[in-house]
């Protein structure tokens, strides 16, 4: 899928450099102070990983991103292309399949738009999440089809995708072997699929397995410690 990401930074409103210099005060917000305060208050009540001032900053940032991404969205939220562009330019993600999956995990009400609440909530896990929150997030990214398990076929698709393998009998055989090795390591109850309990146990034993099926969290250096401002995005 093409995320409309251009090599020419002039064509990309959401470039990293641009975001770094974007100050909260620059974001014009078509919302009165009372509404803003109410929104910040309600999001702050459900998101523990950001201070109230940071939530306000993210709300402003979100609105400016939506405005710049596509005015026709009428502030409903970020669509998959706009969100993918942010994941790419801000968080260095490059894999379309995983960016799609991250989008679906952020989009809690499944309306194909990420609204301000979904965005701030998602970012709180993405940037400041505890180990348990990240564990749940990664599992949700990987199981996608909604049945609560990562099945053999999904493991195959994700490994194939992350290894950038073309389809050929030889490659597919090699990936099938990797699937078997993965299941041997992670499928503790031997039912041929990875449940959350399997995933949790495996990752607790070996932290590197958290992103075993492809990177879906920002690099550690991008994650802000709690005492730093979200402006360090
Ligand atoms: Ca949504
Ligand atoms: Ca299992």
Automatic annotation (TrEMBL):
Spell out the Pfam families in the cross-references. Answer: EF-hand_7 (PF13499)
Q: Which GO terms describe its molecular function?
A: calcium ion binding
Q: Where do the EF-hand domain residues begin and end?
A: 94-129, 130-165, 174-209
Q: Which InterPro entries match?
A: EF-hand-dom_pair, EF_Hand_1_Ca_BS, EF_hand_dom, Recoverin
**Which CDD domains would you find in this protein's record?**
EFh
Keyword tags: Calcium, Metal-binding, Repeat
- Tell me yes or no: is Transmembrane among this UniProt entry's keywords: no
| Name by which UniProt lists this protein | Calaxin-like isoform X2
Q: Which organism is the protein's source?
A: Panthera pardus (Leopard)
- Taxonomic path: Eukaryota, Metazoa, Chordata, Craniata, Vertebrata
């Amino acid at each position: 899928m093409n995320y409309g990401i251009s090599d020419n930074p002039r064509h990309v409103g959401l470039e990293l450099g641009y975001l770094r210099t974007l100050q909260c005060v620059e974001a014009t917000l078509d919302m009165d102070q009372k509404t803003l305060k109410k929104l910040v208050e309600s999001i702050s009540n459900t998101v523990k990983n950001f201070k109230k001032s940071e939530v306000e900053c993210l709300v402003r940032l979100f609105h400016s991103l939506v405005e710049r991404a596509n005015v026709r969205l009428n502030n409903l939220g970020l669509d998959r292309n706009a969100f993918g562009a942010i994941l790419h330019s801000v968080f260095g993600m490059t894999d379309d399949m995983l960016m799609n999956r991250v989008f679906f995990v952020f989009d809690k009400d499944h309306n194909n738009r990420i609204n301000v609440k979904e965005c701030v909530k998602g970012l709180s896990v993405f940037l400041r999440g505890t180990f348990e929150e990240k564990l749940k997030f990664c599992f949700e990214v990987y199981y996608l089809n909604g049945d609560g398990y990562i099945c053999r076929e999904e493991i195959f698709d994700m490994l194939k995708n992350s290894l950038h393998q073309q389809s050929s009998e030889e490659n597919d055989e090699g990936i099938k072997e990797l699937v078997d090795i993965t299941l041997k390591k992670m499928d503790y109850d031997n039912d041929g699929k990875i449940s959350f309990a399997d995933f949790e146990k495996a990752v607790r034993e070996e932290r590197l397995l958290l992103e075993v099926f492809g990177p879906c969290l920002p690099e550690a250096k991008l994650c802000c410690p709690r005492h730093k401002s979200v402006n360090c995005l």
